[in-house]
Structures are given as C-alpha cells and as structure tokens.
Amino acid sequence: MRPRKIAVAAATLAVAALALSACAPSAPPAASTATAGSATLTIATTTDVVNYNPLIGNSRSDYWITNLMYPHLLEIANDGSKEPQLATKWGYVNDTTGFYEIRDDMKWSDGEPLTAEDVAWTMNAVKKDKPSGTFYGQLGNLDTAKAVSKTRVEFTLTKPDSSIVEEIGFWGNIVPKHIFEKADSVATFPNDGKDGGWVSAGPYKLTKVQVGQSYTMDRVDDYPLVKGGTPLSAKVVYRVFPDINTEILALQSGEVDAIANALPPAQVAKLKSTSGITVTESVGLGYAHMTYNMNNPDLAKLEVRQALSQAVDYDAIRKVVLQGQAVSTGSSPLMPVLKDYYDKSIKEYSFDTDKARSLMEKAGYTAGSDGMFPVKFRLIYSLQDSVTSQWATLVKDSAAKAGIPIELQGTERNTYLAMTNKGDFDIYAGNFAIMDDPVTNMTLAYLPKGAINYSYVDDPKLNDLIAQGTATTDKQEKVKLMREAAKIVRDNVYDNIMYTQNLYFASSSKWTGFISKPSELLSIVNPVSVASAHPTGK
C-alpha cells in the first residue's frame, strides 16, 4: 500500500479501523526565488482541445489546459500516494461517510470564493448527469455530498469503499458552481467561454483560442499553491504541431520552451546530449496494453485471445521500440512500481507462434493454403502516439506469422478516442497514464459498465473479487484479493498488458523551475510546475 499520513480525529473504534487518510498542508513548494515577470511560456502539443469542460475531457490537450484552470482536491506523488492541493485533510468519518477539509484562501478568477459548496456541487452534478470520463467512473458508490461548512465537505456512500476518497480527490477537477449550474447538464455543457469567458481557480485562465494553432492563457495573480502566491510567467501558450518530431524541431529552434508530449524513446539519449535542451524523467505509473473486444464473436473465444497473446514479441517491442526504457509487468495489471501489490509469480505471455496456431485450431479454425486463418481483426491506435504506432506494426507482423491477419487503423487522436468510446474496434492499442490504485483501476477496467472496460468483460468471479477489494480496509486482505483478480485477468486475456515505462520530457535550458510529476498527463506541465517555471535569466 502507499504510505499515508494519519488524520487526527475523534472516532469510534469502528472508524479507527478504516485507517483514516489525511494530510496537513505544508508551505507551497519553494521551487524558485524568482518573482513574477512578463515572460511567456510556450508549450508544444500535438492535438487541439475537444472539450473545455474538465468533467468530460477527451484529449491530453483538454487535460493540460483545463487542469491549469480547475483545481483538484489532491495531487499525486511519484509513488502514487496522494498529497494536499485544494484539500488539506481527507479521510472517513465512518465506513460509509468520507470528508475533505479544504483551503480557505482560494477564489475564482471572477472574485467569487472557492468553498466547500463548489466541491459538493461538483460531485453531486457529476453523479447525477453522468459525463463520460474517469471522474464519473470513480463515483459508483457515491450517494450524495454536502458542504457542512465553508471548508468541509462530507459525502455518504451506498456501501463501504476504501479507495474512493483519494481517487475522487485526485481524479476530479472542481468547477465553479455559480458558472456550471446555469447548464442543463454538466455532461453536455460546452464551457466554451462564449458566455463571458472562462473562470479559473488555477494559475492560468484561457483567454484566446485559435483552433489548429494555439491556446493562450493569462496569469491569475492570486494562486496560493506556489511560493509568493503568483505564477511566475505572465502567459502560457500551447501551440499545436502535427507530430512529436516537429515539436522537437520547434524546441531546438527556440519556437517553444517545452514539449508536453513524452519523448519517443529513440530521441531520449540524443536530446540529453543536445546543448540548450534539458530532459526530465517522470515516473511511470501507467502501462501500455491491448484489449480484445469480446463483443466480437471470434474474440469472445478464450483460445483466440490466448492465441493473440502468444503472437506478440514482447521482448522485441521493449528492446527495439522502447530502447530498453520499459519493463514487463508479467502481463499483469499490478505493475512493479506498486510494490505491495506486484506479484512476480504472474508470468508474461510467451511469444510462440506455433502455440498460437494450435490455439486457433483448438478454437475451431482451419488455416487456408496461404497459412492464414479465416479471421481479420482491426487494431486501432493513435497516430500521435509514436511508440504505439511502431509496435502496432510489430504486432501485425508477428501475428501474421501465427496465421492471424490484423488490419492496422491509425487515426488522429481525437478520432481514435471517439472510436474507443463507441467500441468501434476489434483490438484497442494504447496507454493508461496513471493506474495508481489497483481496486479503482480494476473497477474501471474490468467491471461491467466500467468507464474503461474496453474488452467488455463481465466475469462473476472477477466482479466479486473487485467488490471485496473495494469494501475491505485490511491491507493484507486487499493485496491478496487484487493478486487473485490480476491472475484471472492474465489467464483469461481480459487485458494484454505489455510494459510499463518511465517517461522523458524536454524543455529549453533557458527555463528552470519545472516540477516533474508522474505520467504524461502531469509530467512537467502540471499546474504547480507551469506556475513555477521561469526564464533562467542567462
């Protein structure tokens, strides 16, 4: 389990058994002694914004930009543990009541104070309106939230859930009630700035949009989460480029100051030795994977999924495409970085095309004279994801050796995400940026109607294990349950998890103050990092 600090609270013995999680705020990070200036920080991205509503967001650019305006209750450390952001304390009153204590010095950019009422309203609205995305996926056991004071939110649960406080706190952006309540539904509210502009409680506020070109954000002068209470750069501009290689050229030429996207592994060593560029490592709390859509009658057969899992050269992908910057998870959703949960007895699928052929025959298929079986699977991936684009080709080639035809369909990222949400694929290839809590991750990925259940699995035994893991507060019991669940996922190929990797991000050496956080979602473009970055003066 992740290390936790314990909240000081009067409680019954039953409440104490919940191992209340809470943290007291520390001083804002002393990232820099610089004072606020007039500089503009220009950051490269490869996608336009699809949704300005942080409760819906699809693309990484959505997240990067809205995250600078709408705060989270908690942030994440490199080991997956949670730290204060808007919230100062958090935990459980009893086994079906959670709470957050929030800062009293935050306000929206239009002058309205940010209070517990905004927090409670956001949680209730997301639960009621069901916007697509991870935030709503975390709220399965939420009943209702209530602001019991200006700085305290309490919320009731329909049943015990030992992960929900930290996961809501980290994944859910808080929005201004007085702006969003005007909408009929937060699931459809465009929040496009047309009705008086955007309102922010983050370090920056979006002020100008040029679709396909750039997104300009102006500093919010009062931001108490950084030293001095004011972001150091006057403006942040996200510029849109067609691909990562063009972004790198723009960084080298001085057009941009940082790249939001993770660097392709083949570029890391080269850029580390390039004068004028700083490469920062970010801890990987996610994994790359393929899922097989079991709504397809062929993929509903276990032997076919097993055959596909045996037709992937995992070592070659990690060595050639990832340049040795990735490690195996043992085909398990419990990554090595989650040390308490990781189970080294769960072994990775072997690469064996002869065995894959035997499994296809066992499933009832006969290869033709060309050696190919009478099936064809369409694999989707994002063209903006250069790493997945490379290994998708290797997957196609190795599957062909096993007689399994795969058609590659790479699309622009936002199209890819839309296809994913519709289930318009046979094989999904992609990445989860942060998988920090095994119970929550499995709830989202493997329970019926889970927000990221891309295989459409519904396994009663797996469902029961996840339910037990959700309810228990006993660490050892939770670890045991999740390891058993991970073995079911692996053995039934409900998910083909291929590797986990640390990521690398590039910025100009003329800038300093960046603070790295885990994953591509946060990296060096998380709110405190962006607000702390400033020119070196050299």
UniProtKB/TrEMBL annotation:
Superkingdom of this protein's organism: Bacteria
Keywords: Signal
Annotated SUPFAM superfamilies: Periplasmic binding protein-like II (SSF53850)
InterPro entries assigned to the protein according to its UniProt record, in alphabetical order: Peptide/Ni-bd, SBP_5, SBP_5_dom
Ranges for domain Solute-binding protein family: 83-448
Residue ranges the record marks as coiled coil: none
Signal sequence extent: 1-24
The keyword ATP-binding appears for this protein: no
One Pfam family in the UniProt entry: SBP_bac_5
Gene3D superfamilies from the UniProt entry: Dipeptide-binding Protein, Domain 1, Dipeptide-binding Protein, Domain 3, Periplasmic binding protein-like II
PANTHER family named among the record's database cross-references: PERIPLASMIC BINDING COMPONENT OF ABC TRANSPORTER
Name of the protein this chain belongs to: ABC transporter substrate-binding protein
Species the sequence originates in: Leifsonia virtsii
